[in-house]
Amino acid sequence: MKQESGLRRLWSVARNHRPKVILATTYTTLGKVMDVAPEILIGVVIDVIVRGQESFLATAFGIKDQWQQLVVLTILNAVVWILESLFGYLSDVTWRNLSQTIQHEIRTSLYQHVQGLEVAWFEDRTSGGLIAILNDDINQLERFLDSGAASIITVFWNIVLVGALFAFSSWLLTLFAFIPIPLIILGSIRYQQLLESRYARVRETVSELSATLSANLGGITTIKAFTAETREAQRLDQVSGDYRDANLDAIRFSAAFVPLIRMFVLAGFTCTLVVGGWLVLNKRLEVGLYSVLVFMTQRLLWPLTSLGQTLDLYQRAMASTNRIFHLMDVRPTMPEGSLSLPHKAKGDVRFENLTFGYGEGNDILRGITMEIPAGETHAIVGSTGSGKSTLIRLLLRFHDPRSGRVTLDGFDVKELDSSGLRSQIGYVSQDVFLFHGTVRENIAYGAPEATQEEIEEAAKRAEAHEFILQLPDRYDTVVGERGQKLSGGQRQRLSLARAILRDPAILVLDEATSAVDNETEAAIQRSLATVTLNRTSLVIAHRLSTVRDSHKIWVLEGGQISESGTHDELIVAGGLYAALWRVQTGEKG
Ligand code: ATP
Ligand code: MG
Question: Pocket of ligand 1, candidates 356, 364, 391, 511: which has the most ligand atoms within 8 Å of its Cβ, to mutate?
Answer without folding.
Answer: 364
